[in-house]
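Q: My labmate handed me this sequence with no annotations at all. I'd like to see what the chain might look like in three dimensions before we decide whether it's worth expressing. Could you predict it?
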Amino acid sequence: MGRRLRVEYLGAMYHVVQRGNNREFIFGRPDERDYLIEQVGNAVKVDGVTVFAYVVMSNHYHLLLRTDGEFLSKVMHRVNTRYSRFFNCDSGRDRTGVVFEGRYKAILVQNDDYLLSLVRYIHRNPLRAGIVSRFCDYRWSSDACYRQQGNGPGGGDFVNCDLILRMFSDKKQIALREYKRFMENDDGKDWENIPCIGDDSFAQLAEPRKEKAGRVSLDEILINTGVDNEEFQLIKQGSRKRLLQKYKIAFTGEAIGQGYTMREIGQHIKLSHVAISHLFNSKQDSK
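A: Here is what I predict for the chain of 287 residues:
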């Protein structure tokens, strides 16, 4: 059975879950969790993302965010690529290979009505995992940002706490008191294993077409050629820089192998299907 293509648009809200490859402890050290949080903060500055909640566990992380300035795929590519390089090379390891498990899970959220429950679900993750006896003691969660107004011990001053707190009260002290009370009462719902969060009509609108069985998305094929974030953006924008040619050739060959048409590939990187044909022929000639 094919897997769903993601629904992406500016202003979309998502509950994102990203796990380590083979459930490895890729955030086993404090500095690793701190670095991931730093990269999420960079996404707020660079990509115009609004983050409402996060938690970094030993082998996965959760984000609740809104893509105000950039599409989710580009945001996640930036965050995960930078963390992968840090984990493999800059953290004292001499490691190669995949860091994250395949595709991240991106659960589309209809509107603000669901934010409170999602924030609670994310912040209570360490408690459900049995890591702490009180979830508010966990350092690598945005819960501290809410309780300490952006000055949590794990960083995260980029978290937008105001929207959530105003749902309780316009008065900060009352809002904070009600926030703490709300967080203590778990609704027991699994907000992670559902395709989208909203009413029935939203679920129908959000239902994307499905890829052919076993076919990888074009963005993922391009990422797997080894491009960095800047090169990824340039290729998607149709740049003709010669240094990008090897990536385009590899991308074209793999995409055709996955069953995409030359027209589909060309539309994805802003080239004509004739240009794609030349790239494919270049790959065949090099064999």
